[in-house]
Amino acid sequence: MTIRVMLVDDQALLRTGFRMVLTAQQDMEVVAEASDGAEALAVLREQPVDVVLMDVRMPGVDGVEATRRICEGGEGGQGDPKVLILTTFDLDEYAFSALKAGASGFMLKDVPPGDLLAAIRAVRSGDAVVAPSTTRRLIDRFSSVLPASSSEPVAEELRRITDREREVLTLIAQGLSNSEIAARLVLSEATVKTHVGRILAKLGLRDRVQAVVLAYETGLVRAGSQ
User: Fold this and answer.
1) Is the pLDDT of residue 33 over 70?
2) Residue 2 burial (C-beta neighbours within 10 Å; 0-12, 13-18, 19+)
3) In angstroms, rounded to a whole number, what is the distance separating the alpha carbons of residues 67 and 158?
4) pLDDT (tens digit, 9 = 90+) per residue, 10-22?
5) Helix (H), strand (E) counts: the chain
6) What is the DSSP string of 25-82?
7) For residues 9 and 154, what is the distance between their CA atoms, to the nearest angstrom?
8) What is the mean pLDDT of residues 220-224?
9) Fewer CB in 10 Å around end: N or C, the chain?
10) Strands 129-130 vs 3-8: parallel, antiparallel or unpaired
């Protein structure tokens, strides 16, 4: 199935570069472009899109606000597009804001083409992608609000999941894949996938990115924990 991609960036030259990379793929098609968030929202009302590559800093409606409106679904958009943030700025406040707004991924614009293509496919399939450097900065971002010991009271949200699910959520927040979690807990990958699905459903989360954010916000995982 062809992945319909929309490019949102105020620099036409960058959009051209990304379009050349994407259109060379048999399973991708650039169906729309926009130079700012407001234009992107307008286009999405008419054009079905699977994945939006969204810049952060743009005049008018920026990428974070546009992402929020897209993911809230209140803009009359076609379908349920996923948003992958692409930015020059590896700053935790942008990463945190974009992920909180509902983005399914956050990567830097200098990402190798192969990694970008893999990220688009992953986001389209319902997975989540965050650049490793950004993940480390996100962890640092939360370090001042995380509990000093495991004796802290369990956050109310986490009472909705079982002890095993909490264990899986902890490993998700540490950046482990399903196969890595399966090996760590001596479970089958299918069982881990089931646990992940239940965690997302019970906590009302869209994807693994939101699960990571919640794990750090609630203090389930501490900065530097392994």
Assistant:
1) yes
2) exposed
3) 26
4) 999 989 999 999 9
5) 10, 6
6) STTEEEEEEESSHHHHHHHHTTS--SEEEE-S--SSS-HHHHHHHHHHT-S--SS--E
7) 41
8) 64
9) C
10) unpaired
The Cα 41–Cα 62 span in angstroms is 11
Copy the structure tokens of residue 8: 């949102």
Helix, strand, coil percentages, rounded to 5, for the chain:
50, 15, 40
Measured distance CA(129)–CA(111) in Å, rounded = 12
Determine the 3-state secondary structure of 85 from DSSP. Answer: strand
Helix, strand or coil, per DSSP, at residue 144: coil
Q: Which residues pair with 32 in a beta bridge?
A: 6
Instruction: Tell me what the mean pLDDT of segment 159-182 comes to.
Output: 88
Is the pLDDT confidence value at 154 over 60?
no
Residue linked to tokens 């990428």:
63
Which residues, 6+ apart, have CB-to-CB distance to 169 below 8 Å? Answer: 158, 161, 199, 211, 215, 220
Record the pTM.
Answer: 0.69
| Structure-block tokens of residue 21 | 């990379």
